[in-house]
Amino acid sequence: MEPLFDVAVIGGGSAGFAAARTAAASGAHTVLVEGAERLGGLCILAGCMPTKALLESSRRWQAIREAQEFGFEARPIRADFSAILARAHRLVSEFAADRQNDLIHGDFRLIRAHAAFVDPHQLALTYPDGQQSLLRAKTFVLATGSRISHPPLPELSEIGFWDSDTVLEKTELPESLIVLGGGPVATEYAQFFARLGVAVSMIQRGPHLLKRFDSDLSAVLEEAFRDEGIELFTNASLVSAGRSGEQKRIRLVRHGAIQELVAEEIFLATGRTPALERLHLSAAGIDLCQRAPVVDSQMRTTMPHIFAAGDVVGIEEVVHIAVLQGEVAGENAARQARGVGPPFRQMDYRLTMEVVFTEPEIARLGLTEAAARQAGRPTLVARYPFADHGKALLKGMTRGFVKLLADPESGELLGAGIAGPEASELIHELTALLSVHATADDLARLPHYHPTLSEILTYPAEEIARRVAAFRSPVSPDSESREPTA
Ligand SMILES: Cc1cc2nc3c(=O)[nH]c(=O)nc-3n(C[C@H](O)[C@H](O)[C@H](O)COP(=O)(O)OP(=O)(O)OC[C@H]3O[C@@H](n4cnc5c(N)ncnc54)[C@H](O)[C@@H]3O)c2cc1C
Ligand SMILES: NC(=O)c1ccc[n+]([C@@H]2O[C@H](COP(=O)([O-])OP(=O)(O)OC[C@H]3O[C@@H](n4cnc5c(N)ncnc54)[C@H](O)[C@@H]3O)[C@@H](O)[C@H]2O)c1
């Protein structure tokens, strides 16, 4: 039997590591239990980092293809899929080694074992050699992450498919690929493969790609994908899957008609599910909703001494949220275990961002237009296209736009969306501004170096500031407005 810990964290990915580090820093006697053979978590081993390494390769390939526009004559090049994967694996190993070091040398104890609840206060640990022991703690943080959802068609398991875990072990590019799904995994991989010369078609259930983004942002990506030769089938329901000679086939229904697609391979990207199997959660007595533990704003489950964080709670399955939730859960678990009662730390989703690393990149922050409409919240919205922006023209990256959402009376910035070059970087200036409740007028007045991509943000800000001023005062402030610089 292990000694009684203040905090036991289950899972050593982004959320669990953040929870354990925070709990230990608060002075709690903390243990982290990790069951995987390889340390690192999803982001490092099969999520953010390998995909961004792959996308960097396909981006270079695309740049060579477009070289003529910039005055170069490029010879046709050949993609070496194995070499592209080898680079990704090398980077992943380096990131994983850093994380391994942090886990082993943290101010908490690391136990390499699979954990399952025996009762609400005890875990059964199963070690790699099959040995077992019990672990007791005053509080727990569940941070077991997510797994790829089961295929929507049972036949897929018979005919086989690729997914974001298995793709990293492949060695040969298929000639053609049907991607199932239209979320971040589907779009990032679809563009990666299409750019390397694979004939890609995508099947998305909803009317647009990237369902959590406003449809005007998704539309920019859809147009870019069509221009790159990716065939999109939106509003589609899957009917069946099977073999067609050497090829694989998918039948779908769209606008009432059956269609059949045939390709060498199928890539499954229809979402992820909280990883709770073999955790024996029923013994812990916590409530679930849509297969995820129910949590409040303190990341507390329905058992007051059990907290949860990261993909397992399924609120926003991205890393900065997993880390923030882990920190909140870790700090609150430590306070509770050490009897340092309230006030407990709360999660705040006001500054939630999501970025998709396709080209163009797509980013959102805070309030979306769809959410504002659904909540009946009046907002001012202003857009500005990259096609009218000097730096974007210089870079030859004119697709897309930026948009800002603001409160109509105060002009406070409430949200933003960007589809275009460097959206993943540009969004962070807006995050800083939203964090201090800045107004569109504050943004419009901030100095921006010329010519930069960042200065595009000032144009919709000026438009909103003008409209807010006009709302407040009958005298038009138009005479003060600046024209966009080219
Ligand atoms: C292809 C892909 C690309 C992505 N790209 C991005 C991106 O660019 N940016 C971004 O922000 N997000 C991205 N994400 C999402 C991001 O990877 C996840 O949101 C994040 O990694 C979740 O962290 P986590 O700690 O909740 O889970 P994980 O990192 O999965 O950690 C959970 C850990 O718990 C362990 N575990 C599970 N059960 C037990 C048990 N019973 N006992 C002991 N240990 C257990 C597991 O072994 C695992 O190590 C991507 C995801 C995918 C799939
Ligand atoms: N850049 C990033 O930050 C990044 C990259 C990859 C993944 N992620 C995260 O990982 C998680 C998983 O991503 P994901 O793309 O697998 O899931 P997702 O849930 O975001 O998207 C799945 C998509 O598949 C569609 N779909 C579901 N069932 C379908 C069916 N039967 N037929 C056709 N379409 C169907 C859905 O409409 C949805 O658009 C997400 O939460 C995402 O935020 C983030």
UniProtKB/TrEMBL annotation:
Q: Which cofactor does it need?
A: FAD
The catalytic activity of this protein is classed by the Enzyme Commission as 1.8.1.4
According to the record, cofactor stoichiometry and binding are noted as: Binds 1 FAD per subunit.
Please name the catalytic residues of this protein: H450
Q: Which cysteine pairs are joined by S-S bonds?
A: C43-C48
Which part of the chain is the FAD/NAD(P)-binding domain? Answer: 5-326
Q: Which family does it belong to?
A: Belongs to the class-I pyridine nucleotide-disulfide oxidoreductase family.
Q: What protein name applies here?
A: Dihydrolipoamide dehydrogenase
Species the sequence originates in: Methylacidimicrobium cyclopophantes
